[in-house]
């Protein structure tokens, strides 16, 4: 192996370690394919990644592989946890698809994507179904109003749908450009409005500076189709609310919810509430996750330095 090849190998191995460490924050072992897809900061093909995992030159036993999953050393118990959550997620996906068909029939809904733990098949029994919704221009608050009404109906059957991120088709470019946001975006699974999802990908090319291999969804779902009744409901609703009546409802709902949301906003919140965004992340996970990730990286780097110093002194 030439020095250049060795340097490249070490670069990929470092990216693999960073990728597994990030997933470990969510108690989530990764397959080889998932490591390749979510590889942080480095573009590399699947074969190169497999070669690094089979015969590492710099990972020094910091990762363990068992049953097709890769975890950090000492975290092998997470593999059974992931398998259990895969089964829970499979059950939750059945309900998520049903909700998607109904939400797709609501007026002004243009795209639906499943996000969060369920998108990664990492949901436990009783977890929420997190979704991102893209609406027609000027109708973010109205579409959210209809969706929330559906959420309350779903609770009667034991399901909790969380439309915690609603944007209009004029606001496809995401504002926060961190690794956390890039990962959340890359792992979301579109289930309705695939053509609009492609536009969203083009509007967020910055994601691929963090995750160069994640240009297409790793998990694919068949696009949801609404039936004749659903299409009729959607057309009638949009016809009734296309003009001044719809504008008045949009303004009323926006003012009403802004008053309520103002009571929940804290310095730790990450919310965007305007005509084009209803991002109600009142308990922001982004900053704590990134802080913990930086701490884990620093911890691993410190151990590396101590081992290197010991090797030299020995």
Relative helix content: 40-55%
What ranges have pLDDT less than 50 throughout 5 or more consecutive residues? 305-314
Strand order of the largest sheet: 6-3-4-5-8-7
Write down the secondary-structure element order: HHHEEHEHEHEHEHHHHEEH
The whole-angstrom Rg is: 22 Å
Instruction: Give the total of beta strands.
Output: 8
Terminal-residue CA separation: 27 Å
Residues in β-strands, percent: 5-15%
Give me the oligomer status.
Answer: single chain
**Alpha-beta classification:** alpha+beta
Count of separate DSSP helical elements = 12
User: Can you tell me the overall shape?
Assistant: elongated
Q: Number of domains in the coordinates?
A: 2
Mean pLDDT, to the nearest integer, reads 89
Largest sheet: 6 strands, mixed
């Amino acid at each position: 192996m030439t020095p250049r090849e060795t340097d490249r190998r070490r670069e990929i191995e470092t990216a693999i370690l960073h990728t597994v460490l990030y997933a470990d924050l969510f108690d989530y072992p990764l397959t080889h394919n998932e490591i390749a897809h979510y590889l942080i900061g480095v573009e590399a093909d699947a074969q190169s990644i497999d070669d690094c995992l089979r015969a590492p030159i710099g990972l020094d036993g910091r990762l363990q592989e068992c049953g097709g999953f890769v975890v950090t050393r000492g975290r092998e118990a997470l593999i059974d946890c992931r398998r259990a959550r895969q089964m829970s997620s499979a059950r939750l996906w059945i309900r998520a698809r049903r909700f998607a068909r109904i939400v797709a029939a609501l007026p002004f809904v243009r795209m639906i994507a499943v996000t969060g733990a369920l998108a990664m098949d990492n949901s436990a029994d009783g977890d929420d179904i997190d979704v991102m919704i893209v609406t027609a221009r000027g109708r973010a608050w109205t579409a959210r109003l209809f969706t929330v009404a559906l959420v309350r109906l779903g609770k009667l059957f034991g399901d909790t749908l969380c439309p915690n991120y609603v944007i209009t088709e004029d606001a496809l470019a995401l504002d926060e450009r961190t690794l956390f946001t890039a990962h959340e975006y890359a792992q979301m699974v579109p289930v309705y409005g695939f053509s609009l999802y492609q536009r969203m990908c083009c509007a967020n090319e910055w994601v691929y500076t963090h995750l160069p291999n994640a240009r297409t969804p790793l998990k694919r779902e068949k696009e949801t189709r609404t039936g004749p009744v659903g299409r009729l409901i959607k057309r009638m609703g949009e016809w009734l609310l296309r003009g001044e009546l719809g504008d008045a409802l949009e303004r009323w709902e926006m003012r009403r919810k802004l008053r309520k949301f103002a009571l929940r906003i804290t310095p730790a919140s990450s919310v965007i509430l305007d005509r084009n965004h209803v991002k109600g992340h009142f308990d922001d996970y982004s900053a704590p996750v990134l802080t913990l990730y930086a701490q884990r990286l620093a911890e691993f780097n410190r151990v590396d330095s101590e081992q290197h110093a010991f090797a030299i002194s020995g």
